[in-house]
Amino acid sequence: MTTTPPTLEYGPDDAATPDDESTDLLAVENLQVQFGTYDGPVRAVDGVSFSVEPGETVGIVGESGCGKSVTARSIVGLQEPGEVVGGTVHIDGVNVHEASDRTRRRLRGDTVSMVFQDPDQTLNPAFDVGEQIAESLKVHDQPERQRLLDYLHAPLFASRSDWRDHRKRAVELMAQVGIDDPADRVDDYPHEFSGGMRQRAGLAIALASDPDLLIADEPTTALDTTTQAQLLDRFRRLTDERNMATLLITHDLGVVADICDRVVVLYAGQVMETGPTDRVLAEPHHPYTRALLECRTSRAARKQRVPTIEGAVPDRLGEQPGCPFAPRCPAAVDTCQEGKPPTFERDDGTVRCREGVVFGESDDDGGPVLEYGCGETQCAREDSSTTSDTATATARSASPPPRPDDDTDPLVSLEGVSKRYQQAGGLLRRLLGTDRCLQAVDDVTLEIAAGETLGLVGESGSGKSTLADLVTGLETPTSGAVRFDGDPVGAAGTRTAATLHDVGVVFQNPRSSLNPRLPVAQVIAEPLYADGWEDQRRRDRVGELLESVGLSERHTERYPHELSGGQLQRVAIARAIALEPRLVVLDEPVSALDVSVQARVLNLLLELQRELELTYLLISHDLDVVEHVSDRVVVLSNGEVVEAGQTERVLAEPSHPETAALVEAVPRLEHSSQ
Amino acid sequence: MSVALESIASAVGRRYRALRTSRTLATFCANPLNVAGLSIVTAITIAAVIGPLVAPYDPTTQDLANRLQGPSLAHPFGTDQLGRDLLSRLLYGARLSLGIAVAVTTIRLVLGTTIGLLAGYTGGWVDEALMRLVDIQLAFPGLVLALVIAGILGPSLRNVMLALAVVGWASYARLVRGTVLATKERDFVRAARLMNVSRFRIATRHLLPNVAGPVVVLATLNMGTVILGTAGLSFIGLGAQPPTPEWGTMLADGRHHLRTAWWIANVPGVAIMCTVLGFTLLGDGLRDVLDPNHETTLEKRT
């Protein structure tokens, strides 16, 4: 780590008086950001303090709604529509919020860069990627000159050499962030790039100004696991090479373990715990950090209940005394509800909690007096400390899954199913026979036995969702047959009502899978209505269903936008099981959810399977989830089945390189200790 | 019976709660122009509804002794060339104008939405055929076509209504079809298909409510144009015939007396302007709050 004080490149400026704390590249001191809402100001960031030294990688973790992104954006002065009401942010000794617009722009151009979460929205669809990277270079070199002609690839004669030079450097940057054939891709438009490529381009734009600090807001959340692994690897290498400090915002503790030196745990806009990654993940002091770690599925035994954090992140409206986590904290005592929890300075970080809770009332070191989320049912807390290998071993005896006997008929079978999509089919091309086809699913044969859970994994674009659509009947196979109970079934429109009732579906994004204009009760009653149930019977069944998915009666009249993501997914599950289907197709059921919510939904799914003897077809790119829930795994690559078998066997000793790559790509906490 | 009552009560309660806590409503009221538009429209609606009850005179009774009287206490807006009270005529006229606007817009809306929904949801050659029909309709200049239709059918208010309704539905069809195409790919429609929900029910219950927002905006903005169109056609003598107290006819009557009795032409003119302005402001306001992009930002809790 270099200790050379960062040099100020700007001239004397109104606010540019470096103070004595200038060893920190970034110093956030008691930052407070509010959002004015209809109900009054919401304190999104409530007194956050932390610092980043040059060359250091710091992770900010927490559930969604904890103020992570707002913190990150406030650092560069992009807190709109929020308002900074207190505290200071110093970058390189410059107070960001008091600096003039000009200084702030310089800071953003030279010292700080940002990578955003959604790669679909960070790039301007109207200009090619090379130009957007070149723009960043150009702004860095000559902040005052930006010309439309340059974008149109028709620079003025005088600036032609500059323009060419910038494009050359853009190509170099694209190579650095790992875009293959950068010289060919430089002229491509964002829509010609895949999600991972776009995120790399975003990274290249951020790196173009050669920043001292890179702020990355959930840079890999929208990507699949393999791409995430590649990108994280790239991050690590670039930050090392350039000795660049990184502030990484993420909800994934695995990602943190992978690349961060230090962690800042945020909850409800307050810093709960800070410390070196290894220490925080291995022996967290704060109950919230511990709870976050516990609810990771990789820590629990297979098919067993995952410990959860009950409740949700509160909206910080008005003044509330006490620790914000107290209502959900398993270790909370009465005094937690009053006053502000003290912050303890430890030699390697800080903890903001009441002393007795943090260090345990008793003196014995190893076991703090805590019980987590194990309230009602059997809890896998004992297993959570064991490594994942032994956990999978014990799980076999712990839960006897309804193992299909070999002689029973499978519930669903796919025989040589293929699905091709026509691409860019013009009349001329059709006549010439040069149609391009996309082979989404290619000759897939597989069986799903009654009562089992089949996990379908693969990179994005490997045909997982298409395969699910073929099973449900939303798509018809180009060739091959889908059989249900041995009878071939076609598209949803041609299936009998009974066959349709046998299949329930839960989609990935609960917000788009529920009609925003119908209240919850009617959403759930929709399949019942279609089946011709009369009013009273429908109402009773909806009540039953709500209870079985853990929603209360008062949710019936709510509209989808009034519910949280986890609650919405529960509603979607209730709708899927309304007509007592035998097969439920789960298309990425938890990937849009927070870790703690994810754990709760998975628990619910496992419970329902036990109670209703459901068969699951689970599609997920998250191997932890698949490993936790499924009996068998099928690995898809480019529409073909490359490997299939018992979950523990496939994931422990993958025989196909594709599977091995998938397994390898999962960021695990265990890596950090190596 | 009690079950039905209960469900109605719960639905009302739900609506009320949704309205009370609605950020949409708060956003709408935050802009004074929106509130102004809403007030104008409300005022005119009230005037149209209770007009006959409060109108001091009969709108068609002539009183030649008091013709061309300026505004006074007895006749707040003065009298016209036949001695009829302008205020009374204006109030009755509001009824006519608003009634025609509502009727024409409803016909356009129902026709256009049905065609758009059918085209967007069915797809294929049905879509193709219906959309070409829309193209043909849009290719004609609206008011001129209305003029021709009204001319062929003969001058009367009913024919004006028909003419205006026939020329205006295509924009609704376009709008609805576009929204339906986007909505029908969403997961909840796919889920409904898998739940064996009938096509009719998917169209009416899942697609229709989700296209309602932009349609309502278009309809509100359209009300103003329809009022203008009716007044215009009546002004040139194709619409309402004397002595019907229609704003366009009143305007036409007044233009002969502009020098001697300015109020005869100005009173209905200002009324038309205010009404159109009110509907336009209201429509703009609704567009701001019902815009789908806007809605998502309101819905999301961050």
UniProtKB/TrEMBL annotation, chain A:
<protein>
    <submittedName>
        <fullName>Oligopeptide/dipeptide ABC transporter, ATPase subunit</fullName>
    </submittedName>
</protein>
<dbReference type="InterPro" id="IPR050319">
    <property type="entry name" value="ABC_transp_ATP-bind"/>
</dbReference>
<dbReference type="InterPro" id="IPR013563">
    <property type="entry name" value="Oligopep_ABC_C"/>
</dbReference>
<keyword id="KW-0067">ATP-binding</keyword>
<feature type="region of interest" description="Disordered">
    <location>
        <begin position="1"/>
        <end position="20"/>
    </location>
</feature>
<dbReference type="Pfam" id="PF08352">
    <property type="entry name" value="oligo_HPY"/>
</dbReference>
<dbReference type="InterPro" id="IPR027417">
    <property type="entry name" value="P-loop_NTPase"/>
</dbReference>
<feature type="domain" description="ABC transporter">
    <location>
        <begin position="412"/>
        <end position="663"/>
    </location>
</feature>
<dbReference type="InterPro" id="IPR003593">
    <property type="entry name" value="AAA+_ATPase"/>
</dbReference>
<dbReference type="GO" id="GO:0055085">
    <property type="term" value="P:transmembrane transport"/>
</dbReference>
<keyword id="KW-0813">Transport</keyword>
<feature type="domain" description="ABC transporter">
    <location>
        <begin position="26"/>
        <end position="293"/>
    </location>
</feature>
<feature type="compositionally biased region" description="Low complexity">
    <location>
        <begin position="385"/>
        <end position="398"/>
    </location>
</feature>
<dbReference type="GO" id="GO:0016887">
    <property type="term" value="F:ATP hydrolysis activity"/>
</dbReference>
<dbReference type="InterPro" id="IPR003439">
    <property type="entry name" value="ABC_transporter-like_ATP-bd"/>
</dbReference>
<dbReference type="InterPro" id="IPR017871">
    <property type="entry name" value="ABC_transporter-like_CS"/>
</dbReference>
<keyword id="KW-0547">Nucleotide-binding</keyword>
<comment type="similarity">
    <text>Belongs to the ABC transporter superfamily.</text>
</comment>
<dbReference type="GO" id="GO:0005524">
    <property type="term" value="F:ATP binding"/>
</dbReference>
<dbReference type="Pfam" id="PF00005">
    <property type="entry name" value="ABC_tran"/>
</dbReference>
<dbReference type="GO" id="GO:0015833">
    <property type="term" value="P:peptide transport"/>
</dbReference>
<feature type="region of interest" description="Disordered">
    <location>
        <begin position="378"/>
        <end position="412"/>
    </location>
</feature>
TrEMBL record, chain B:
<dbReference type="InterPro" id="IPR053385">
    <property type="entry name" value="ABC_transport_permease"/>
</dbReference>
<comment type="similarity">
    <text>Belongs to the binding-protein-dependent transport system permease family. OppBC subfamily.</text>
</comment>
<keyword id="KW-1133">Transmembrane helix</keyword>
<dbReference type="Pfam" id="PF00528">
    <property type="entry name" value="BPD_transp_1"/>
</dbReference>
<protein>
    <submittedName>
        <fullName>Binding-protein-dependent transport systems inner membrane component</fullName>
    </submittedName>
</protein>
<dbReference type="InterPro" id="IPR000515">
    <property type="entry name" value="MetI-like"/>
</dbReference>
<feature type="transmembrane region" description="Helical">
    <location>
        <begin position="96"/>
        <end position="121"/>
    </location>
</feature>
<dbReference type="InterPro" id="IPR050366">
    <property type="entry name" value="BP-dependent_transpt_permease"/>
</dbReference>
<keyword id="KW-0813">Transport</keyword>
<keyword id="KW-0812">Transmembrane</keyword>
<feature type="transmembrane region" description="Helical">
    <location>
        <begin position="215"/>
        <end position="240"/>
    </location>
</feature>
<dbReference type="GO" id="GO:0055085">
    <property type="term" value="P:transmembrane transport"/>
</dbReference>
<keyword id="KW-1003">Cell membrane</keyword>
<dbReference type="Pfam" id="PF12911">
    <property type="entry name" value="OppC_N"/>
</dbReference>
<dbReference type="GO" id="GO:0005886">
    <property type="term" value="C:plasma membrane"/>
</dbReference>
<dbReference type="InterPro" id="IPR025966">
    <property type="entry name" value="OppC_N"/>
</dbReference>
<feature type="transmembrane region" description="Helical">
    <location>
        <begin position="133"/>
        <end position="153"/>
    </location>
</feature>
<feature type="transmembrane region" description="Helical">
    <location>
        <begin position="260"/>
        <end position="282"/>
    </location>
</feature>
<feature type="transmembrane region" description="Helical">
    <location>
        <begin position="24"/>
        <end position="50"/>
    </location>
</feature>
<keyword id="KW-0472">Membrane</keyword>
<feature type="domain" description="ABC transmembrane type-1">
    <location>
        <begin position="94"/>
        <end position="283"/>
    </location>
</feature>
<dbReference type="InterPro" id="IPR035906">
    <property type="entry name" value="MetI-like_sf"/>
</dbReference>
